[in-house]
Amino acid sequence: MNSLNRLRPLVNGGAGLISRNYAFKSDLKIKWVRPEKIPCYKPAKSGDLVPLPALKGGELMKDFRQSNELDSADDSVKNLFTLEHNRRREMLEVFKDEMVKRVQRHELDYGSIEAKLGLMTAQIRSLQEVMEKFPRQSAAKVHLKELIDKRKRFLRYLRRWDYRRFEYILEKLDLVYKPYPAEFHWITRKDSLRKLTDIHCDEIKTTRLQSYRQLLESQQLDFLAKKLENLQFIRKEQQECKVPVTVTPEQIQAVKKQYEELKEKRKVLEEKAAEEQD
C-alpha cells in the first residue's frame, strides 16, 4: 500500500499517466569518472619518488678516474673518456655505483640485501626512462616488471624482520613501499556510484546537523533567560502557596551563572568579528 501511495496521477496530464515523487539517481549531483589505468611499471605504482638523474657529461668514466696519463693529456683526449662522449651504459654504471654506495654496509659490500636493493633501484629507474621513450619494447617491459616484483619481495622481507633497516632503505633510495592489496576487486561503476552516494548522503547529513546546531546555539541565550525567569516564578509561587519548594537557590544561581557566561562569550565574539571587519 505504501508503494502505491508513492505513485499519484498527474493533475494536468492525460489519462493513465503517473508520476513518482521520489528522486532519480540522475537528480543527484554525483558524477563518476572511471579512473585512469596506470601501468604497474610507472613510478606512481612502483614507488620511485625520484627519476633517473640527468647525464653528467663532464665526468670521466668509472675506470679512468684515477688514470695518471689523462691528467697530462689534452682536452680533446680527455673528452673521449667523458660520459657524454660514450655509451649510455657508462653513465648507468656510475649511477648504479652511487646507489649502492648510499646503502652499502662497507666499501666492499656488494652482496648484502641493501646493496642488492640499491642496484635493483638503479636498474628500475633506467628501464622506466627507456619505457617512457619507447613504450612498445616488450622485452624491457617484462624485465622491468620482474625487477619491480623482486624488489617488492625484498622490501617485504626486510619490513617483516628488520623494520628499522627497512625505513633506512626507503629514506636513502627515495622509495615508497606499496604492498599488494589484501583483497583484489574490479573497479565497477555500480560499486563506485554506491560509495559516492554514501559520501554524498553523509555530507548532506553533516551539513544539516551543523545548520541545526547553529540554530539551537542562536536560541540558547533566550532559552536560558526564559528558564531563569520560570525557575524564579515557580519558587516564588511555591513559597506563597506554602507548598514544598522544589526549586533551590543553587539551581537558580547555576542557571544565572551559565546565562552570564554565555552572554559574555557572545559579546567577546561579536567584538572580534567587528574588529576583523574593520
From TrEMBL:
Among SUPFAM superfamilies, the record links this protein to: S15/NS1 RNA-binding domain
- Where does the record say this protein resides? Mitochondrion
**Primary location group:** mitochondrion
Signal peptide positions are: none
Recorded GO cellular component terms are: mitochondrion; ribonucleoprotein complex; ribosome
- UniProt keywords, alphabetically: Mitochondrion, Ribonucleoprotein, Ribosomal protein, Transit peptide
Task: Write down a Pfam family by its short name.
Answer: Ribosomal_S15
Q: Which domain of life is it from?
A: Eukaryota
Tell me the protein family, please: Belongs to the universal ribosomal protein uS15 family.
The name under which this protein is listed is Small ribosomal subunit protein uS15m
**Species this protein is from:** Culex pipiens pipiens (Northern house mosquito)
